[in-house]
Design a protein that fits this description.
Blueprint: E1 3-6, E2 9-12, H1 14-19, H2 26-63, E3 76-82, E4 88-94, E5 100-106, E6 113-114, H3 122-132, E7 138-148, E8 154-164, E9 167-178, E10 186-187, E11 200-204, E12 207-212, E13 217-222, E14 225-230, E15 237-238
Antiparallel strand pairs: 1-2, 3-4, 4-5, 5-6, 7-8, 8-9, 9-10, 11-12, 12-13, 13-14, 14-15
Length: 241
């Protein structure tokens, strides 16, 4: 006997219960599959949207760069160096993209010229996007620490940094030289002798200064800008107007 009924209640033997296969509602399986499918679709859509946004930022940033750079493309000057003939000043500055690039200008503030263009780099535009959202795991390329060689070339460091969850990490450093007019950029060689920085001294972490005996003036790095203070004057004037 597989089962017995007593009144309105039907009882089944344990063997009968085991023999009966487990059946689940078709509606239950359908709703569960729909939930899984929706979750996967939403995740794929989010990933696709993120890639589209990053691609748009990169392409828009690269295409929107000006052909002629001006002082508006200088957010903050980091350091500087006076040329051996005391006629030019080379400096590194933070761009609106967020990276450091190399610039050069005459000591009278004329002929401002940008020498490196990592602000156009897709890597740095992605870094800008990630920093805005406070994300980690991105790379950034900086051009910094400009120095003069004995042949009048400008030497600088190209540094690749990875920003991870636990902090930044230097991936690589490459040292290059370039002419003051922006031509002939190439890796630094053994024949490129760097002139020691003697005329510039750090006062504190916010300010450094150099002096030109030829033009009888001081060059000041203060409040993220370069200033000129001529001998006999008490008020410095902004170099790049």
């Amino acid at each position: 006997m597989r089962g017995a009924s007593f009144g309105l209640v039907r009882l089944r033997s344990p063997q009968a219960a085991q023999d009966r296969p487990l059946r689940c509602s078709k509606r239950f399986w359908s709703s569960g599959a729909n939930r899984v499918s929706f979750a996967l679709t939403r995740e794929l859509m989010l990933k696709f949207a993120l890639r589209v946004i990053i691609f748009g930022v990169v392409m828009g940033g690269c295409a929107g760069q000006q052909a002629d750079y001006t002082k508006k493309d200088i957010v903050k000057i980091a350091d500087f160096e006076l040329s051996p003939d005391q006629e030019k000043i080379v400096f590194s500055a933070i761009t609106p993209t967020g990276n450091l690039d190399i610039w050069v200008v005459d000591i009278d503030g004329k002929n401002l010229r940008k020498l490196t263009f990592q602000d156009r780099s897709p890597t740095n535009h992605i870094a800008k996007f990630f920093k805005k959202l406070h994300w980690a795991n991105y790379f950034e390329i900086d051009m910094h620490s400009p120095r003069w060689t004995d042949k009048g070339r400008i030497a600088f460091c190209q540094e690749l940094t990875k920003y991870e969850m636990w902090g930044p990490r230097t991936v690589s450093k490459r040292f290059k030289t370039i002419e003051p007019d922006g031509t002939d950029k190439k890796p630094q060689a053994d024949i490129d002798k760097i002139i020691k920085k003697e005329q510039s001294s750090h006062i504190n972490k916010f300010q450094s200064q150099g002096r030109s005996e030829k033009h009888r003036l001081k060059i000041l790095l203060k409040n993220d800008n370069l200033w000129i203070l001529k001998d006999g004057e008490v008020t410095p004037k902004r170099l790049i107007l």
